[in-house]
Request: fold
Amino acid sequence: MSPRTTVSTAVGLCALALSVAAAVTIGPADISASDVWTSAAAHLGLGESRLAPLRDGIVWDLRMPRTLLAAVCGAGLSLCGAVMQSLLRNPLADPFVLGVSSGASTGAVAVVVLGVGGGAVSLSAGAFTGALLSFGLVLLLSHSLGGSTDRVVLCGVAAMQLFSALTSFTVLTSADAETTRGVLFWLLGSLTGAGWTDVLLCAGVLVAVLGVCLGHARTLDAFAFGEEAAASLGVRVGRARLILLCATALLTAALVSCAGAIGFVGLVLPHATRLLTGSGHARLLPVTALAGAVFLVWVDTAARTVLDPQEVPVGVVTSLIGVPAFVAVLHRGRRTA
Amino acid sequence: MTGRTGLGAQRVTRRTGDRLVLDGLTLTLRPGETVGLIGPNGSGKSTLLRLLAGVLAPSGGVVTLDGRPLGELGRRTVARRVAVVEQHAHTQTELTVRDVVALGRVPHRRAWTAATAADGRAVTEALDRTGLTDRADQSWHTLSGGERQRTQIARALAQEPRELLFDEPTNHLDIQHQLDLLDLVASLPVTTLVALHDLNLAAMYCDRLLVLAGGLAVAEGTPGEVLTADLIKRVYGVSAEVTAADGHPVIRFLRRGAQGPARGASPGRPGSGGPRAAHVGGSERDR
Reply:
């Protein structure tokens, strides 16, 4: 890692730690920063907790996992978006461009509405399975059509339409009003009910996929002038593309199955980060992941507090912020094109 | 074929669908020379370059580097020896000139490591050689066509290749920039194979020419040997007068129907079948 990358990463990590600590203190119950520290220290085996069990529970069992899942989702979606945009050479690409989120929705709906799995399968497991099925379909289809990136994008769009239609059909024909509301809430992206299992699972996948992507940072740089140019720079294009697509699809599937399809983070954050870091992936990827994490921590804090006691799905808030940001990016793109 | 140094193709064929794009072509590049690749649109020039770069695999025959087939060497090893400059490079990514040139170091760098002093030196030298040092921090998107081509050449030089392949590098450039670019290309201390459309430029800058038509090599030799009125008639189906000046042939094309020898005769072309080249129209753009 170059010194500049190390500095940017360190700054980002500090900002993230502060954001998480601050976000946990915000909410209906009055929690101070020292409460957060005490509780975290106690649970990590660094001393005794002097907090009342109820307050400790609010910090450690409710707010902390939720905030951390927000951080992990933001980081993961932003990372996947950056990789997809470079790999597919498409500034409009995001983690969901390969139909992963639509497949997840269909899987989740199949479990919740149709009762697939007979109650033994959780919504998350159904969503994860659906996401991987959808991605597998896109991969097979695009491979049979020659595997070039524009084919991959087109197949992804086709899969997205197909699974969205399946989801709508299932919900409209089989679900009652209560279930529909629940499914809709999840579809829009929500971090409600996040537990430590979700956090650890997603964080584990995030770390592994981040490692794979950073190992391919130079390869992603080489894709700037297209696949043939990358090949002439020594990149094994087919192999690199397959590894990166699978890694990002796996991470996206894990995140979507825990928190629904939180839109726009993966589309806008990478563009915003490029303005700061430039296009070199060795620096862009860690910084965009950290930026995504900080962003989603704050957006989720807003989502659960602004209309308190009612909660706004975090996906709605990201899009409300994301659309104007996206327009700004497009304006900038028009100048450089 | 073992023990041979440099890049070469032995009886390579390339088929797309049921069309034979290259038909048993053999080529050896001697170290340090500048070879021009000429021929009508669709004659297989670009395909040959892509086979030699290892970006495309031959359907038959073999491309060798120092006597070893490219497939055995691995992509990175090939990319450290053979660099390619395409006729037109396009990106949507926001990159500076230095960023683009640094891409040439990709095959030399390992994952997870920062750039080494050797990487920095190669980039600086490539910028210097192509006269782009002052523009290193300028955005790629603000460059003119000629500057973009020079940047791509600098990127190729940063690869520190011994073989450099150009696919019509002067396309879309005005005459001044065409000459500037070819002066640069001819001065490079590497073996170069350059596909060109302009026969006069090919005659001026190349040590040797290879003429392709319909996927076959129809002539090979010095510009003086190759570029005759007869060959131009056979391959391009146009009439021309060829004179000699400054030690290389100078070609003056004649208007159709004005005068010139009768069309159609095609003696001496190796292989069988009519020269497809004769049907090529007036378009100067490949692809």
Chain A has 14 helices and no strands. Residues 53-87 of chain A form the longest helix (35 residues).
